[in-house]
Design brief:
Number of helices: 23
Strand content: 5-15%
Helix content: 25-40%
CATH topology of one domain: Leucine-rich repeat, LRR (right-handed beta-alpha superhelix)
CATH architecture of one domain: Alpha-Beta Horseshoe
Shape: globular
């Protein structure tokens, strides 16, 4: 024992014991303050975490990160509870718990410093982006005078208020159902043509509904082949927010939930119009747990899983007669006034269908007795009690037979060339009909036919912005809309003959789905190639020869560009409706030697990149091209092209990166229209060398800042439109040298400070639009030269310009000042991509 105590080993051991004892005493003294620090930290964190949970739910973010933080805090609380029970008898346990407390505190600090901060930063970025989007909307609305500071009306996606004759009782019933508490989804159901969509639009304008939901009313059409991401993008577009890209449907719905929470502290009404059978799952995705958030669904199916539907019954006899008389114009002077009994019998045959009543009434308007009698006999011989879509199509067929002008019927059938529930630009119809039916190019006869079809209640026309009047033959803001059943009727009329013999061939290609005749044609091609390979002899594959004058092909975003080897030798019009980001022109395009009109429209939300555009260089008869929502590739030589229309296109590759000048590519161009192309900063080089140009329209191109200085070289220019080019700050002096200019439009060029000094030299000027040019402070003195003209000039401006500018020249007798009423129309906010459709 003595040896052990006196040895060096014992000294070393005792030294470690003493050292450990001293450390224990030190940590024991630090245990109390460490415990108090942990307690204070946890007390401070508790209310913050609860607040974070509330904001996390508001932003509709995943709860995983908050739950992990709560778990760490609970573990810390448990540790504190244990440590608070320790006494001096547990002195030697203090260092162990001291270390646990410090470790737990460091873990919590690290989690807050890294994970939570990153999560919060991400949420702030998302929130900031959305706030920026809303601020963009408000800024645009303030600048345009559409926002009065008291309401955010621009966020409303509801369409224009329709007529709703004879449906007052149904409207009141729907209003009561929507105002009830506890109803999340309400289904408005009825037969095709019963007026469901019309009623849904009308309810958006009901005073009580507007009073409850304010500007937070959103209306979107779902249609037969719904694309959830596109629907959500449409809602973002309604709100004038940046339209985001979604990788998945789940991401789209999550972002929509965030959007709806941002735009509405007040109640929200979402209308999903024209929901087809088997789409209940789609409706479910739009359900969010939000206070006073309602969904109104219109469908031919009741969807009872969402509760008791609101049934839209056929009209009673009294309202049906009133509706029929209104659209037959029986209250006006008529070439034939039918007996009341004959009217009642025809109305009874319509079985209370608003669509049937309107179309039949329109077809009989101003018609002689024989037409009325024939219609009565037809209705009595046909059984339409069920009024399913097939019966109704046959039923509506009679309204087309009454069209006396063959062009009217053909033009109506052309409406089926375009996708369901999409607006059809009137300018497209004018271009097509000018070539197909030899109508005039300015659209006078085309508009006469359109008005006749409106009178027959077969179509509707809306004008999104009243930039110019119809007397100027300017229809860039006019769109045709039609009931989906009438569209089906138009398509049905086009399918009366075999594929090879149809006048218009309408093809829809979704994903890998192909028509039977398409598959058979491709199989024949494979067999021919296989036989060639086996036999060693080349066998030319059999091509599908079609005689159609019009070819319409619609593809979705999953189309694989697997084109059939067709031979459309007779086609004069090619309509391509697409949704994909990349699109290749069909190889058979170069064989379309008779092609005169090419229409390419992208209905997606991204610009579509076109390839094989050079195939158009082989088409010597091609006269008109209209491109919408595409990235226009480099130009090829189109020496006979007379009209080029670009709408919402990316023009950089065309006008800036192309090696060939536009004057060399299109030397005989007569009309150039560029609308909503926001990457256009300057006009392409060489445009002033196209001396054949008569109409130049650059509208809604907000980045265009200047025009070519040698504009007077356009010696044949008759129309120059520059309306709503907000960055335009200069007009060249050479404008005064446009000796044939009849119409000059600089409406809403808000930053244009002055006009060219020689503006008064425009001796053939007839119309001068200058509404909304707020920076113009004076007119050049040369306007006094208008006094010497042999005709009058109509100057269209606002009150301020009339007084401040033209008031300085009161003695110019040939100048007629017109001050149109302010037209506040938010249809243009939806763009041409809006899926809202008018049901008559």
């Amino acid at each position: 024992m003595a040896d052990l105590l006196s040895g060096g080993a014992v000294g070393a051991v005792m030294g470690e014991v003493v050292k450990y004892t001293l450390q224990t005493i030190k940590k024991g003294r630090e245990f109390g303050p460490t415990l108090e620090t942990n307690i204070e930290t946890l007390k401070a964190l508790a209310p913050i975490v609860e607040e974070m949970k509330d904001y996390n739910d508001l932003l509709d973010r995943p709860r995983g990160e908050i739950e992990r933080l709560e778990k760490r805090i609970r573990e810390g609380e448990e540790l504190v509870k244990v440590c608070k029970k320790l006494t001096l008898w547990n002195f030697f346990s203090f260092p162990s718990y001291q270390g646990k407390l410090q470790k737990k505190d460091k873990e919590l600090q690290r989690h807050l410093a890294v994970n939570v901060q990153i999560e919060n930063k991400r949420d702030l970025i998302v929130l900031s982006a959305k706030v920026d989007g809303i601020l963009d909307v408000l800024t645009k609305m303030v600048n345009s005078g559409q926002f009065d500071g008291n309401q955010i009306g621009g966020l409303c996606g509801a369409p224009d208020e329709p007529e709703c004759l004879g449906m007052g009782e149904a409207l009141n019933k729907l209003k009561i159902e929507l105002m009830k508490d506890g109803v999340d989804v309400l289904v408005l159901t009825g037969l095709g043509g019963s007026g469901k969509s019309t009623l849904a639009k009308k309810i958006c304008w009901h005073p009580q509904i507007k009073g409850k939901f304010g500007g937070n009313i959103f209306f979107v059409t779902v249609s037969k082949n719904p694309n959830l991401k596109n629907i959500v993008q449409t809602l973002f577009e309604h709100c004038e927010c940046r339209v985001p890209e979604f990788q998945t449907d789940e991401e789209a719905i999550n972002r929509l939930g965030l959007l709806l929470r941002q735009v509405g502290r007040n109640p929200i009404l979402l209308v999903l119009d024209d929901v087809w059978p088997n789409s209940e799952g789609l409706v479910e995705k739009f359900k969010f747990r939000m206070k006073d958030y309602k969904i109104l669904v219109t469908s031919r199916v009741a969807f009872r899983r969402f509760g008791t539907p609101c049934q839209l019954d056929p009209l009673g006899h009294g309202p049906a007669v009133s509706l029929f008389r209104h659209f037959a114009q029986l209250n006006h002077k008529s070439s034939y006034m039918p007996e009341k009994k004959l009217v009642r019998e025809i109305v009874r045959g319509c079985k209370g269908s608003p669509l049937a009543l309107q179309v039949i009434a329109g077809s009989l308007c101003q018609q002689p007795f024989e037409k009325w009698q024939n219609m009565k006999e037809f209705l009595q011989s046909q059984s339409i009690l069920e009024l399913n879509s097939t019966n109704l199509l046959c039923f509506l067929q009679q309204s087309l037979d009454i069209l006396e002008d063959i062009n009217q019927k053909e033009c109506f059938m052309d409406m089926g060339l375009f996708p369901e529930d999409q607006r059809i630009p009137v300018t497209i119809l004018i271009d097509m009909w000018a070539e197909l039916y030899d109508l005039d190019e300015d659209g006078t006869k085309a508009m006469a036919i359109i008005h006749d079809l409106i009178t027959r209640n077969l179509i509707n026309v809306i004008a999104t912005r009243k930039v110019a009047t119809e007397t100027d033959k300017y229809y860039n803001n006019h769109y045709v809309m039609m009931h989906d059943l009438l569209r089906e009727l138009a398509i049905h009329q086009s399918k009366g003959e075999p594929i090879e013999q149809r006048k218009r061939l309408i093809i829809e290609l979704n994903g890998d789905n192909r028509p039977d005749w398409w598959i058979a044609q491709n199989q024949q091609g494979l067999i021919s190639r296989a036989y060639s390979f086996i036999s060693g002899m080349f066998v030319k594959p059999i091509q599908l020869k079609v005689d159609a004058r019009v070819l319409s092909i619609s593809t979705d975003e999953t189309f694989s560009s697997d084109w059939c080897d067709m031979q459309p030798d007779e086609a004069e019009v090619l309509v391509l409706n697409l949704r994909s980001d990349k699109y290749s022109l069909p190889d058979f395009t170069e064989k379309m030697s008779k092609l005169k009109v090419l229409i390419i429209t992208n209905y997606g939300f991204n610009y579509s990149e076109l390839t094989k555009f050079e195939l158009l260089g082989f088409l010597l008869n091609l006269k008109r091209i209209r491109l919408e929502k595409v990235s226009v590739p480099c130009l090829c030589r189109l020496k006979n092209l007379r009209k080029l229309s670009l709408h919402m296109c990316n023009t950089k590759n065309t006008f800036e990166s192309c090696s060939i000048q536009i004057s060399d590519a299109m030397p005989n161009l007569v009309e150039l229209s560029i609308d909503y192309c926001n990457d256009l900063i300057k006009l392409p080089d060489g445009i002033c060398n196209i001396t054949t140009l008569k109409k130049l329209s650059i509208t809604n191109c907000h980045k265009l800042s200047a025009l070519p200085q040698d504009l007077e070289k356009l010696e044949n220019l008759e129309v120059l439109r520059l309306c709503s080019c907000s960055d335009l700050v200069d007009m060249p002096k050479s404008v005064g040298g446009l000796n044939k200019l009849r119409c000059l439009d600089i409406s809403d060029c808000v930053n244009l400070p002055k006009l060219p000094d020689d503006i008064g030299d425009l001796q053939r000027l007839e119309k001068f639009y200058m509404k909304g040019c707020s920076k113009l402070s004076e007119l050049p003195y040369s306007v006094i030269n208008f006094e010497n003209l042999k005709h009058k000039i109509s100057v269209i401006c606002d009150d301020e310009a009339a007084a401040a500018l033209w008031g300085q020249f009161p003695n110019i007798q040939n100048v007629k000042i017109e001050m149109p009423e302010v037209d506040i129309n938010l249809n243009f906010l939806h763009g041409t991509r809006s899926s809202v459709v008018s049901l008559r």
